[in-house]
Amino acid sequence: MRSAATKAHRKWRRESEHVAERSLSVHGKSCALSPKDPRSCKCECRGKDHGSAWGSAPARRGNVRRAAGLTITVVAAVTIGPLAISAVLGGSSAGRKSLSVQVKADLNKALAALAALGFRGTRSPNSSTSGPSYFTDCAKSATYKVRQFLTLNPCKQYATATRTVAKRGATVPVAFSWVEMHTATLAGQYKVKVDAYGTGNPPGVPPAFNGRCYASGQHGATVWTVEVHPTGNVNVDQEILQAAVRRKLPPSYLRQHCPS
User: Fold this and answer.
1) I want to staple 159 with a disulfide (CB 3.0 to 4.6 A). Which of 89, 178, 196, 213 is the partner?
2) Per-residue pLDDT tens for 93-108?
């Protein structure tokens, strides 16, 4: 009797569990069979995601954790962004240092070449000595058409220096200028403008220099200029100019930029 009752009870439990299993749902739709055979589930996922019904909570928590991790990564990237920009902006300091290195090298070589010809720097009260000094507003101290160009095309920075050299009692002021544009193309356009007589002085060059003995050159995005205050002796002026720019200038260039 007990055995028969036990069998009947077990049968009743199996039937009850079967009914319960049929009432479970996945994504809002009933599953036909038990969790042991999820392939017959008639939900949209077609039995591929039955884990969401047979113990769904842990799986979903795992997804949430992964999503949270992704969010943190994105935020970190956004936070790092300004630091990267700061690093780029910090490169401007390197740019200033790069220009100062070029200025120092050019100036030292020019003075050494002048000294080799007997034109040495003087510290007399009437001598003109300044710089090198560095600025960012090129248009402010430039003149005429050069100023107009730099107003429309602002430079990145510029440096200027003035030295007076003397030989046998004759003193000659020499002005140096370095203008760094934002691109080499703009630098080339600036050089064309500043290299023509009557277009005005580069930034930082005093008005006392009239452009009658002048040379320029380009190194990447930087245009350098050297201007000699005329002595009245064209041969001396041209000699000083060529020593200051450290190169032999063609006669045609000298006739145009440092004439008698």
Assistant:
1) 178
2) 555 678 999 999 999 9
